[in-house]
Structure formats: C-alpha cells, structure tokens
Amino acid sequence: RRLYFDTHALVCLLEANGFTTQQSEVIVSALVKIMSTNLDMIYKDMVTKVQQEIALQQVMSHIGGVKKDMIILEKSEFSALRSENEKIKLELQQIKKQVMDEITKVRADNKLNLNLEKSRVKELHAQQDRALTQTDRKIDTEVADLKTMLESHKLDNIKYLAGSVFTCLTVALGFYRLWI
C-alpha cells in the first residue's frame, strides 16, 4: 500500500513542535496503522472487475426478463394500469397542494416564532446592558468613594506626621536649651 503523505516529514514536524523522536514515531506509526485499517475496510467492501461483470450480466438478464414481462403487461393490463396511474397522479397533485399549503403555514408560524424569539432576545440583551451599566456605575461610585477616603486618610496621616515632627523638634529644642 502507498501512503499519500511523507511520514518522515510528519515526524520532523512533530519534533519541531515539542515532541520527542520516540513520541513522534509512535504517533506516525499509529496514524499509519489507522490508515491501513481504514483502507482494509474500504477494500473489503469493494468488488473486483470480474464480480462487477458478473453482476452486470445478471442485471442485463433481469432487464431482458422485465422487458418481456412489460410487453405481456402492455398487451393485457397496461390500459388498466394507465387509468389507475392517472387517478394516483391526481391524488398526488391534491396531496402535493395540501402539503404545500401546510408548508406555507408552518413557514409563516416559524417566521412569527422566530421574530418573537428575536424580540425576546433583544429585550434580554437590553436588560443585560442596563444591568451592566448600573453595575458599572456602582463600581465607579465605589471607586470614587474609596479614592476620596484614601485622600482623607492621606491628609490625616500628613497632619499626624507634621504634628509628630513638630513635637519631636520641640522636644529636641527643649533638650538643646537645657544643655546649653
């Protein structure tokens, strides 16, 4: 059997993409086995030329027999079959018309249902968008509140730091005066 792809190139490609040589060879080997099994299954279902010729000869002999039977039927009952066939054609045309009417009704119902579903989906998307917008606003408000609180705490810390520095300076100056 011939394989219609380059197994070595596939191994190299797999190695280039991070597989080891052994892993690459195992993968390619598995692919070859799978393809061989599939080809075996396909070849099993195929017929040989001789079998095809025999089947063709059998079909041709059956066709010859059917031709003979048709000639006999044409002479005896073919006119009755024609009238029955005409009746069936009329019935089929009526059924076809009814089916077409039903198909038209079903299509109209489906279009209506589809339009209703589209409007429901649009409404749902609109509700989701509104909810998302509200959530975004809440988040923005919370972030602004947190920034304000952070600035407030920053100012308080600066006040305490300044007070602590001045207190330390005052104490240091007091000690300095005492020593001098």
CA gyration radius, whole angstroms: 45 Å
Broad structural category: mainly alpha
Largest sheet: none
Give the overall shape, derived from the CA principal axes: elongated
- Domain count: the total is 2
Low-confidence blocks of residues: none
Average pLDDT number: 89
Helix percent band = over 70%
Strand elements, count? 0
* Beta-strand content: under 5%
Tally of alpha and pi helices = 4
H/E topology pattern: HHHH
Distance between the termini: 110 Å
Please explain how this structure is put together.
Helix 1 packs antiparallel against helix 2 (21-45). The protein is elongated, with a radius of gyration of 45 Å. The longest helix has 102 residues, at 78-179. By secondary structure, it is mainly α. It has helices at 7-16, 21-45, 49-76, 78-179. The protein contains 4 helices and no strands.
